[in-house]
Amino acid sequence: MLYQKIRNDAEVLAMLERGNHDLGVLGFTDHSTAHTALVADRAANILQRLGYDEHTQQLARIAGFMHDIGNAVNRSRHGEYGAILAYEILKKYDMPLEDRMVIISAIGNHDESTGGAKDAVSAAVILADKSDVRRNRVRTTDREKFDIHDRVNYAVTGSSLKVDLEERKISLNLQVDESICSMYEYFDIFLGRMMMCRGAAEMLGAQFRLSVNGGKVL
């Protein structure tokens, strides 16, 4: 399976490792293969649940795993850097040019600062990436060293992304400890990402719903 080859590609792994290291120095949460593998599986699962074929699911899985390689160059515009790097890496695999274009488009458009869903694969990667909010992405357990990103992620004690094919609804359900992070802080960081998820869901012909502590927010 091509995804497994990408998953074990030395260049891809080296770029993800370097990018995660550099983001750690800058104070960002975990962006290791634990994150990218989760995004890969979640993106493919979203498409599977919505009835997309296995080929499209594989493209989403590959794009999801590779989506953060651009952090090895710079955090700023890492999506665009990642797309360029991915194009060169994918040349060595027996992959149709059209498929490579789909993957680099998804990588280049996954960041909320410059991107947005352009097709089913990019939409699935966006939803999978932006919904990965969890306590163990925080690198330190010393709360005195937390910045707002750490507090927001650490405050999430439970997270699930559900896809309802019948109702064409994609729902992100969070449990948030408001003694650690206020709702104001959460939305200060994540509102743009949640709006990006709304657009991605619409690209898939679905609605996006966000609930926090059992109450509908978006």
Could you list some keywords that capture this structure?
218 residues; alpha+beta; Hypothetical protein af1432; four-stranded mixed sheet; 9 helices; 4 strands; 54% helix; globular
Give the gist of this structure.
By secondary structure, this protein is of the alpha+beta class.
Structure commentary:
With 218 residues, this protein is of the alpha+beta class. The protein has one domain (2-216): Hypothetical protein af1432 (Orthogonal Bundle), CATH 1.10.3210. Helices cover 54% and strands 11% of the residues. The protein has helices spanning 2-7, 10-26, 33-49, 54-66, 78-90, 97-108, 120-130, 148-155, 183-203, and strands spanning 156-164, 169-176, 207-212, 215-216. It has a four-stranded mixed beta sheet with strand order 1-2-3-4. A hairpin with a 2-residue loop joins strand 3 (207-212) and strand 4. The protein is globular. The N and C termini lie far apart (38 Å). The mean pLDDT is 94.
Helical segment count? 9
Distance between the termini: 38 Å
Mean pLDDT: 94
The helix fraction, in percent, is 40-55%
Strand content: 5-15%
> What is the number of beta strands?
4
Q: What's the structural blueprint in terms of helices and strands?
A:
Layout: H1 2-7, H2 10-26, H3 33-49, H4 54-66, H5 78-90, H6 97-108, H7 120-130, H8 148-155, E1 156-164, E2 169-176, H9 183-203, E3 207-212, E4 215-216
Helix pairs in contact: 3-4, 3-7, 4-6, 4-7, 5-6, 6-7, 7-9
